[in-house]
Amino acid sequence: MAGQSGNNLPVYTEIIEVTPERCSSWMTKRTCNRVPLKRSNVDKFKNILRKGDFRTTHQGFALDWHGCLIDGQHRAAAIIETDTTVTAQVTYNLSPDTFTAIDGGRVRTAGDFVAQITEMRQANANVYAAALKVLANRTAGHSWMRWTSGRLTAEELQELVVKWPVPEDHILRLVSKGKQCHASATGLIVAYKIITEAWPEQVADLFFDGIGEASREFVGRDPRAMYTNTMLSVNRGMVSRDSVQQSAQAIKAFNALVSGESIGTLKKMKLGGIKTVLDRRTGEEIQQEYLADRFPEVVSQTVVPNDKWLGEGGVRLFG
């Protein structure tokens, strides 16, 4: 079966003998496919091969027009490790973009797709993808309690990395800050993108550059030190994954930094729910609903910057 690719090379499929040598050649050319191999998937195919249960079906191997293996890497790895030859279907000359349409809901994660789109390292792409989901749910108007819910498609992620671009070196910087505070790097990225919707990056950096180990130079109840100490105290030696709560706490601390306010504690937002209370008129217990706290708004640029925490040099950045 043949078609036509965007590179003017015909797309075609054939059924051939796939040898360990052929798979080894393909695996050296999978640089465009940044999906990490999952050992459980490789082992699954190895067991199938050892039992002689491999069957020729429509699912086989796919290569793009550069010769990069974009689908079938787990089968290929199993064939190499078991030194087995199989008969399988192979499709050639697909567009590299086909990667985003293959097995999107089965093997590949949002981080895998972001790594493919941005060419970031997998670990950084995972953090970025998680932040994109939170930002997308926020923009969709969902309650903050649902911002980490749902799945993003490859097509949606392609749009979101354009809408909320974050350079990899910036992700690395916030990952490092998160480790220093035991805070969620995803939460810091979310807070950064929300804050920079209202303020220039150099103003946002006054907060983010000052948290973590850098907060030691600040005295009193400086919001950067308060945020760092709160994260270290609450998370007790472990890096937290509570990205939405900690993005809110970072925004509260940023607001205090800019406005010159003192903050006592950086409390988490309360969830909504139902509580049992005593009816004063009847003396009976009743169920009463209470609303969740609102996610904090970033203080607007109409506020007059205060030099209490920033000093005169920091205030001058506001122009």
Give the rounded overall mean pLDDT: 87
* Cα Rg: 26 Å
Strand order of the largest sheet: 1-2-5-3-4
Number of strands: 7
- CA distance, first residue to last residue: 64 Å
Strand composition percent: 5-15%
The gross shape turns out to be elongated
Low-confidence stretches: none
Pairing-aware structural class of the strands and helices? alpha+beta
Largest sheet: 5 strands, mixed
- Roughly how much helix do the residues carry, as a percent range? 40-55%
The arrangement of helices and strands along the chain is EEHHEEHEHHHHHHHHEEH
Please count the helical segments.
12
Q: What does this entry look like structurally?
A:
The protein has 319 residues and is an alpha+beta fold. Helix content is 44%, strand content 13%. It is built from twelve helices and seven strands. A five-stranded mixed β-sheet has the order 1-2-5-3-4. A two-stranded antiparallel sheet has the order 6-7. Helix 1 (20-27) packs across helix 3, helix 2 (39-50) crosses helix 3 (73-82) and helix 5 (122-139) packs across helix 7 (168-181). It is elongated and about 75 Å long. The model has no long low-confidence stretch (mean pLDDT 87).
Concise description?
The protein is of the alpha+beta class and 319 residues long.
Give me some keywords for this one.
319 residues, alpha+beta, 5-stranded mixed beta sheet, two-stranded antiparallel sheet
Secondary-structure blueprint of this entry?
Elements (H helix, E strand, L loop, with lengths): L1 E3 L5 E9 L1 H8 L11 H12 L10 E4 L4 E3 L1 H10 L3 E9 L15 H9 L3 H18 L14 H10 L4 H14 L3 H11 L5 H8 L14 H13 L7 H17 L13 E6 L6 E6 L16 H10 L3
